[in-house]
Structure to design on (143 residues):
């Protein structure tokens, strides 16, 4: 069963600069509630949601069959610091993360590696937004 968005997650998704046709990467998707909402808001775009937890990915897939079948949403079990685009896969216009330890300063060494991988996955104008509990911040990336 799909999980509804909490008021906090709804505020995060509302803060994202989404537009029709975007390719979006969600880092640390958990059970997929935000990814599903973003998939609806980008119309014919696509969302790839990743999480290091196989259990979280299984829950996300189970709750997202309509979006997955429509081709608007896909999931991958991978840690952000190990994430790489598949061969020939287009880059993303936007990446976002909510309470992800590798990106919120709790694990600086992993964070440095993660930022390199995210930067490679984004277009030249793409950005990474990270929720820092009280606000979304754009994280500068080395390109």
């Amino acid at each position: 069963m799909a999980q509804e968005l909490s008021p906090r997650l709804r505020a995060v998704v509302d803060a994202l600069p989404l537009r029709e046709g975007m390719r979006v990467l969600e880092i640390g998707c958990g059970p997929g509630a935000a990814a599903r909402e973003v998939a609806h808001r980008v119309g014919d775009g696509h969302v790839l949601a990743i999480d290091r937890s196989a259990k979280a990915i299984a829950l996300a897939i189970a709750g997202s069959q309509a979006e997955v079948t429509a081709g608007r949403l896909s999931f991958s079990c991978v840690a952000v610091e190990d994430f790489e685009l598949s061969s020939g896969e287009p880059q993303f216009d936007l990446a976002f993360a909510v309470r992800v330890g590798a990106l919120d300063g709790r694990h600086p060494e992993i964070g440095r590696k993660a930022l390199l991988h995210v930067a490679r996955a984004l277009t030249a104008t793409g950005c990474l937004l990270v929720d820092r509990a009280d606000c979304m911040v754009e994280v500068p990336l080395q390109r």
In short: Strands lie at 23-27, 46-51, 73-77, 92-98, 122-131, 136-139. The chain has five helices and six strands. The two ends are 40 Å apart (CA to CA).
